[in-house]
Amino acid sequence: MSDLLERLLDGDHRALARTITNIENRAPGYRDLVSGLYEHAGTAEVIGITGSPGAGKSTLVDKMAETYRERGETVGIIAIDPSSPFTGGAVLGDRIRMASNIGDMDVFFRSMSARGSLGGVSIATADAVKALDAFGKDRIIVETVGAGQNEIDIVKTADTVCVLVQPGSGDDVQMLKAGILEIADVFVVNKADLDGADRTVQELREMLDLRGNAGSGRNDQHARHGHHTGPEATENGADGSAGRADGAALTQAEAEAEPGEDGSDPEWTPPIIEAVATHGEGVDAFLDAINDHHAHLDATGEAKAKARERYAEEVRTLLREDTADLLAEEIDARGGIDDLVDGVVAGETDPYGIADDVLDPVATCLRERREDG
Questions:
Q1: In whole angstroms, what is the distance from residue 296 CA to residue 36 CA?
Q2: Nearest residue to 34 (alpha-carbon basis) of 125, 97, 122
Q3: Domains, in order of start, for the chain
Q4: Each residue of 207-246: pLDDT tens digit?
Q5: Which element (helix H / strand E) includes 46?
Q6: Among 206, 297, 327, 332, which has the highest number of CB atoms less than 10 A from its own CB?
Q7: pTM of the model
């Protein structure tokens, strides 16, 4: 594993692929390998792409990578595919829609299985991101499965979360209210050449306004500052709110520069970008919005706060995984889950009693060590 790490740090693409395979398969020694990545990671910008199935996530990611390469930046892509309930493997369908960058060694693409994670991103994905980061990729894009309201784990991995919505998807916009709306840093109305695009943009604006008026914190500035999201912007601002003194809409940078009414730094207002990914339209504006958000994170100190939250979540996740493995080993030592269930069926105990019985020795041991130490 140490030789593999050295080769990865030297820029060996084959070593990078092998490293991610070891991470995904949880191969013996992978923990030491991941631990060695930390001191070399932390410079790449991680972008999460999520949204409902059919919104064009894979096509947009392909165009993003192509545009970043034109700008001279290297790219790593992790596409989370639905996993088979039988083998746990990924379908790998995203490869079909990401063909523009085939043969470009500075675009590394990897499909990974969701592994049953309801949040769309497994702990292996976060580790794979570190491998790409340590390798030296400038931008790392993580595309989630696109299952709906459960697609929120990406916020724990990405610096900027982008949510795609397609025109005429009234049900999808309603869904966003309950789930994904809160995690979006940038909205993209893809397939904006279709009927209903203007209505979808307006619905998103209204949702952001409602959240701001409700005092959610994140979008409070939206009610005070207009933001240009397309050619339909009004004289006073994109949503009719007050803009600059000359009547033009405030840019995101200008809105960020103005202090809040209480003197505090204003919150980030998710911009709404219209795009037609199949033709590459709106991609440059989209990437510029991502850059704006990255600058906002640096300027406000949120970047460091996000890093702390990410590490905290990694610790919690690893502890949950390791505890589950430890308890599974204890259950096997007691004859297996079937023997424990037999006691419940026979009326001799209940699931709560079994859980207490299995956990009590572990809890006692931990308390004793804490008291001794």
A1: 30
A2: 125
A3: 38-302 (3.40.50.300), 314-372 (no CATH)
A4: 888 766 543 333 333 332 333 344 333 333 433 333 333 3
A5: strand 45-51
A6: 297
A7: 0.78
